[in-house]
Amino acid sequence: MINRTAARILFPGTEPIGRTLPAQLVEGQSVEVVGVVPDVRRQGVHREAAAQIYLPLLQVSGTPTSFLVLGDGDPKLLIEPLRHAVLELDPAQPISSARPLGVGQAVRVALTGIVGGTFAALA
Length: 123
Description:
Elements: E1 2-3, H1 4-10, E2 20-21, E3 31-32, E4 36-37, H2 76-89, H3 103-122
Parallel strand pairs: 1-4
Antiparallel strand pairs: 2-3
C-alpha cells in the first residue's frame, strides 16, 4: 500500500493500484500496489505529508520491531523479566534497547497505535 503523496509522485496521472513499485524503493523486491491510503502528516499538520510505502512486516527483512508493555509499578522492574521472556522464545533474537517511556511518549505511541490499528482493520 502507498499513501496519496507517493501515488502522485510515483504514478502521476495514472491509477497506481496494480502497478509495480520501483525495486530500488523496496529492497530490490517486486511489489505490487494493492491500495492507496490517505496521507498522514507525521511531522505535524503544518508540514506536507511525505511519500509513504506500507509493506507487510513479514515481507521486510531486517526491519526493527518494537513492542510496548503496560504495567503497574516501576517500569524498570519489568525490563529484565521481559528481556528473559523474549530470549526464552527466541535465543537468537537481538534486543537493542529496553527503556520506560515518558508520559508524553506513551500518549503519542497510543495515538499512533489507534490510527495504525484503524488502517489495519480497514485494509
